[in-house]
Amino acid sequence: MVDALVIIPTFNEIENIERIIRNVFSLQRKFHILIVDDNSPDGTAALVRELQTEFTDQLFIEVREGKLGLGTAYILGFEWALARDYQYIFEMDADFSHNPNDLIRLYNACAKGSSSMVIGSRYVTGVNVVNWPMSRVLLSWLASKYVRLITGMNIHDTTAGFICYRREVLEHINLNKIQFVGYAFQIEMKFKAHLLHYKIKEIPVIFTDRTKGISKMSKGIISEAIFGVLTMKIKSLFNRYEI
């Protein structure tokens, strides 16, 4: 029985999707994959469906009507996983910014240790980022410092999106109360796990910026993270923040 599911949200990832799927399925440890595709016009979903004939009962796909946000894609994936028997649920990007080989390290840190949430961290041992301009590295690093200061979380990479959750964490978080749909979603999930007193561990990974396809980062996403975090913390101080 495979107990681990990797959730990969996609929008226009035709250049990366087959390679990332084959890489995950070539690992020594067995994982299942759920693709959550936002109706990519480039044919990403059609290619995944073709691959399903090769990877029967290993590869799954849910296609949504359009671009509805990263957070809602992961929530759909979490709910899909919780309706089944997966014990370890992963977030991972499709563009190889997250190395599939690190899935095993995250799995072992979660399954063989006492941690309930394991983060593949860019900043826990310095700055492990490849192919980003210095301005973007500084923005990301400073954003994590800001979030850490505001929330009080002892996490170096608060915006990381390479994560392994024990099933119990997702069962105890009210997914219907998640407020953010962009990259602030990543912060909010960590904050909720922190408020629930789950043990969170960071392990160092090397983050490599995509070489194929187009980044989905925008100014609106950054603004949501900056102002949303402050609102989230204030509400938690007055017991108005729902976990």
From TrEMBL:
Q: Where is the signal peptide?
A: none
All copies of the Glycosyltransferase 2-like domain together span: 6-172
Which GO annotations describe the biological process of this protein?
Answer: glycolipid biosynthetic process
For this UniProt entry, what's an example GO CC term? membrane
Top-rank taxon: Bacteria
Keywords, A to Z, come to: Glycosyltransferase, Transferase
- Family matches, as CDD domains: DPM1_like
Gene Ontology MF terms in the entry: dolichyl-phosphate beta-D-mannosyltransferase activity
Q: Extract the SUPFAM superfamilies matched here.
A: Nucleotide-diphospho-sugar transferases
Which Pfam families does this entry report, sorted A to Z?
A: Glycos_transf_2
Q: Which family does it belong to?
A: Belongs to the glycosyltransferase 2 family.
This chain belongs to which protein, by name? Dolichol-phosphate mannosyltransferase
Protein's organism? Aquimarina intermedia
